[in-house]
Design brief:
Shape: elongated
InterPro entries: Insect_Ionotropic_Sensory_Rcpt
Number of strands: 17
Helix content: 25-40%
Subcellular location: Cell membrane
Main location: membrane
GO cellular component, one term: plasma membrane
Keywords: Cell membrane, Glycoprotein, Membrane, Receptor, Transmembrane, Transmembrane helix
Number of helices: 16
Length: about 575
């Protein structure tokens, strides 16, 4: 209760045991708030704090000027009493012709984002009137009439409604609806200034924005559209997002948000000391590290063509074949092993099976050796053309073990705090600086968001991405101080999550992110088109076909005799020529 009250007023004030009344009148007068001689503002007595557990649900102000209301509201704004969604009653019935000040009082309350307020006054004739206001739309319960419409700073009207006191008949109280009602369910086109952060194209190798921005943007549009609000979006580089330093001072765009230049900001990193202004989005990423892959030598590269299990399987198969051929050919193991080695390398063999069934099995084995030889030859050529890479960093602490130099933006320091990485990390302005540093230093590593990191390594085989599973990263929507719409926004966002729509949007956007990004070619690298290599490809295919036909012809001549094969070949050619002649001459 605020104002110039008489102490005897509280003697008959109806109180319930579960309620606590804080009397903002006491023994010590605040001289700085003494605006008029007949009005006083006082500090709270220290004993009042002993039983104070919750913010004030009902605030009653009487016999107080507009300037005093603003001063008192500024004083209690950051106290435990402050309640943005409380019920505020201003009583000016103690003097006549006080209804003309309704807008002045409502303007002060709306500067503090207070929307549940009623103003009681007397007109010139002494009749009592009740005034309420709606800063969003002209939606009002039945029985109220429009009194005044005033444009606000955002160009949206604030509407004041009035009702005579004699309309309140029976047990209806002005502390219950229809005086106080939820005005946030229909905003009537109220403008919402939104700040979006976008990763610059030059910082990422892809044209589209970050996946988290796409999901959050869709959700935000859905919520404000359903509330009939008008969105005014501004886009800024993600490097200007700002954060809160160790002293608790905001910087960058976050400072502008707190100053009221914007109403909300999308996808800010979670700030542990800033929870009051945040709405958790249920979108999680992680802390990842970008680093170079190690180049393997030719020996290690050849051994890494197959896994250990495949190498053991090949060795076992070759050993079995050596034993089988030794039994069939009746020669030594060394001769059989040398014969198989010649087959693998594509050189003619010294010994062949004599029986037809064994020869058929042998031909299948020869074709298998040809395929295996082609695979090995292609892999060996790839080793000579481009180095084979290996992910050396298996876990984040390998960066410390191998003495990597880790670079991170300021916003990642809160995640690395109280870990070993805080002693090995250097601050940078943006991740682009770190990527440039990696081009000249193979021992440099970058701390990045896992979503953005996955985009940066996509299509770059020489880079690896390692996630720190112990450091989850949360995304939040941040609102300005005392934003009265944060509660309805949080309620609708929770309902979207409970209905499963958020999970559905995440799956859709992940699928789009994986298939929709277009890779930019690296500077200085020219690609080879298929048309430039098709001649060599066709030449290789024709050569293999010719070699296969020659091999089959040699087998046929050996099995059936040269004369019979020539006779059959001539018959096939003659029949083919006769068909061509009939086709073109008919």
């Amino acid at each position: 209760m605020i104002g110039n009250f008489n102490d005897t007023l509280f003697d008959d004030f109806p109180l319930k045991s579960q309620h606590t009344t804080v009397r903002l009148i006491g023994l010590e007068q605040i001289k700085s708030l003494k605006i008029l001689p007949e009005e006083k503002a006082y500090k709270m007595k220290e004993s009042d704090f002993e039983h104070l557990l919750l913010p004030a649900n009902n605030v009653f102000m009487s016999n107080i000027s507009v300037a005093s209301v603003k001063s008192v509201m500024s004083s209690i704004k950051y106290s435990v009493l402050w309640n943005l969604y409380g019920r505020y009653v201003i009583d000016q019935t103690w003097r006549r012709d006080s209804c003309t000040n309704a807008y002045a009082y409502f303007k002060v309350l709306w500067e503090f984002e207070i929307q549940n307020a009623v103003f009681m006054c007397r007109d010139v004739d002494g009749e009592i009137y009740f005034f309420i206001f709606n800063p969003f739309s002209e939606r009002i319960p039945e029985g109220w009439i429009s009194h005044q419409r005033v444009l606000q700073k955002k160009g949206h009207p604030l509407t004041i409604f009035k009702r005579a006191y004699d309309r309140f008949l029976g047990p209806v109280s002005f502390c219950e609806p229809p005086v106080f009602f939820d005005k946030t369910t229909a905003l009537g086109g109220y403008p919402i200034k939104i700040m979006e952060l976008i990763a610059p194209v030059k910082d990422l190798p892809y044209e589209l924005h970050e996946y988290g921005i796409q999901v959050s943007g869709t959700i935000v549009d859905t919520i404000w559209y359903s509330l009939n609000a008008t969105m005014r979006k501004s886009y800024f580089p993600s490097s200007q997002r700002g954060t809160i330093d160790k002293a608790g001072h905001p910087a960058g765009l976050l400072k502008r948000l707190l100053q009221g230049d914007f109403d909300m900001q999308l996808n800010l990193d979670y700030e542990r000391d800033f929870w009051r202004n945040q709405v958790y989005t249920y979108l999680e990423s992680g802390i990842c590290y970008l680093a170079w892959k190690d180049v393997l030598g030719e020996e290690k590269g050849f051994s890494s063509l197959f896994s250990v299990e495949i190498w053991l399987l090949l060795a076992s198969t070759i050993a079995i074949l050596i034993a089988v051929f030794q039994h069939q050919l009746k020669v030594s193991y060394a001769q059989v092993a040398l014969n198989l080695l010649r087959g693998i390398l594509g050189v003619s063999m010294f010994y062949e099976p004599k029986r037809p069934l064994d020869r058929v099995s042998f031909y299948v084995l020869v074709y298998s050796f040809i395929v295996l030889n082609l695979y090995f030859q292609s892999k060996l050529l790839s080793l000579l053309t481009a180095p084979m890479l290996k992910e050396t960093i298996q876990c984040p602490y390998d960066l410390i073990r191998y003495r990597y130099r880790v670079f991170a933006e300021h916003r990642f320091e809160q995640y690395l705090y109280d870990t070993d990485f805080q002693y090995y990390t250097s601050r940078i302005e943006s991740v682009k600086f770190c990527l440039d540093r990696m081009k000249s230093d193979r021992k440099a590593a970058c701390v990045s968001d896992c979503w953005a990191g996955a985009i940066m390594v996509m299509g770059k085989e020489y880079m690896q991405l390692v996630e720190d599973e112990d450091l989850p990263k949360y995304f939040v929507h941040v609102f300005k101080d005392n934003f009265c719409l944060i509660r309805v926004y949080r309620k609708m966002y929770s309902r979207l999550f409970q209905s499963g729509i958020l999970r559905y949007l995440q799956k859709v956007k992940i699928r789009v992110a994986r298939s929709g990004y277009e890779l930019k070619p690296d500077e200085g690298i020219t690609g080879i088109t298929l048309g430039q290599v098709k001649f060599a490809f066709y030449f290789l295919v024709y050569g293999l076909l010719g070699a296969g036909l020659t091999f089959l012809t040699e087998i046929a001549i050996r099995e059936f005799g040269q004369k019979k094969v020539i006779k059959v070949t001539k018959a096939i050619i003659r029949r083919f020529l006769d068909k061509l002649k009939r086709y073109y001459c008919s």
